[in-house]
Amino acid sequence: MLNVLWLQSGGCGGCSMSLLCADTTDFHGQLRDAGIKLLWHPSLSLESGSEVIEMLNGVLDGSVRVDALCVEGSLLRGPNGSGRFHVMAGTGIPMIHWVTRLAAKAHHVVAIGSCAAWGGITAGGDNPTDACGLQYDDDRPGGLLGAAFRSASGLPVINVAGCPTHPGWVVDTLMALAAYSLAQADLDTLGRPRFYADQLVHHGCTRNEYYEFKASAEKPSDLGCMMEHMGCKGTQAHADCNTRLWNGEGSCTRGGYACISCTEPGFQEPGHPFHQTPKIAGIPIGLPTDMPKAWFVALASLSKSATPRRVKLNATADHVVVAPAARKTRLK
Fold first, then answer.
1. What are phi and psi of 35, to 5 degrees?
2. Domains and CATH numbers, the chain
């Protein structure tokens, strides 16, 4: 049985809200059947106050086993490194001290969401609370626990990044840990589980025909590709949002919103409005990461010259204006 302790630090609680949308009619039953025991979660557990403090002290003295310490929200180190911007109620002890001590006892440490992974939204702007991730400070290794930290399992912090995380990413990560099937090789270079981080949001996007012909949307309601003008980073963002749909139905791009690459460090400070694509000489800065820019420019020029009228017209409409032609075919 995988004992999971879930703490919330400096965040909005959105990852917990997302977790409630897990694709199951019996959330606790799904965990139980997978061999996962939720020792405590601030929103999903009945215990509170002195009961929780007693359990946490039990972890520290070794009488309570924690296999996976899950932390949601960034770690608030301020003011002046004291951590007293966030003190755990009833203890007088800063959350960063609790997390550091509990992490030393846990077999695995899991960052739930981009705030816990990199600092995320909470670390945006001037970052007055000195927020950071568990093992990263934005894209710089370090964070609260330090770059050299390894849990008792020998793994670094497992970063289930996203803002919020997809509930499937969280549940699948915990299931993999319960089955002893998550090793160092199953994490990417930023410590994210590769089962979702080896994918791109671009994969499975319903706008891919428009992308292929570089037929671009010009306003939010348009059907076309949102990369050229509307800030979409789906060709660069590591996540399987368009093949593992949210609530079994949608994704940001399917809902008409550009991908802002929320699984990546620094997404909260892109240096431009989220809904705009920065360009140099008319060429988007954010091109696919695994294609030379010169190739992309040449391909885009060729694609635009070959764009079917149907695709061009539909790209700047909020509904299908021209349907694909129905022609007799001989399938062999």
1. 80, 30
2. 2-196 (3.40.50.700), 199-319 (4.10.480.10)
What are residue 76's DSSP bridge partners? Answer: 131
- Segment 289-313 mean pLDDT: 82
The Cβ of residue 138 has, within 10 Å, a number of other Cβ atoms equal to 18
Q: Locate all alpha helices (DSSP H) within the chain, ordered by sequence.
A: 14-19, 27-33, 50-61, 95-103, 114-118, 167-178, 194-197, 208-212, 293-305, 309-315
**Beta-carbon count within 10 A of 28 CB:** 12
Could you give phi then psi for residue 149, rounded to 5 degrees?
A: -60, 135
Full DSSP string of 243-273: TS-BTTTB-TTTTT-----TTSTTTT--SS-
177 DSSP assignment: H
- Model confidence at 130, in pLDDT bands (50, 70, 90)? very high
For residue 217, give the DSSP letter: -
Q: How far apart are the first and last CA of the chain?
A: 53
For 279, residues 6+ apart whose C-beta sits below 8 A from its C-beta are 285
The model's confidence at residue 332, banded by pLDDT at 50, 70 and 90, is low
Helix, strand, coil percentages (3-state) for the chain, rounded to 5, are 25, 15, 60
Tokens at 243, concatenated: 């093949």
Q: What is the DSSP string of 306-329?
A: T--HHHHHHHTSSS-SSPPP----
For the cut 80, the answer to whether the pLDDT of residue 226 exceeds it is yes
Which H or E element spans position 109? strand 108-112
Q: Which residue has the tokens 């002893």?
A: 180
Cα dihedral angle (267, 271, 274, 279), rounded to 10 degrees? -120
| Tokens coding 147 | 């770059």
Q: In Å, what is the CA distance from 218 to each residue of 49, 53, 128, 231, 279? A: 53, 54, 37, 11, 15
Please state the pTM of the whole predicted model. 0.93
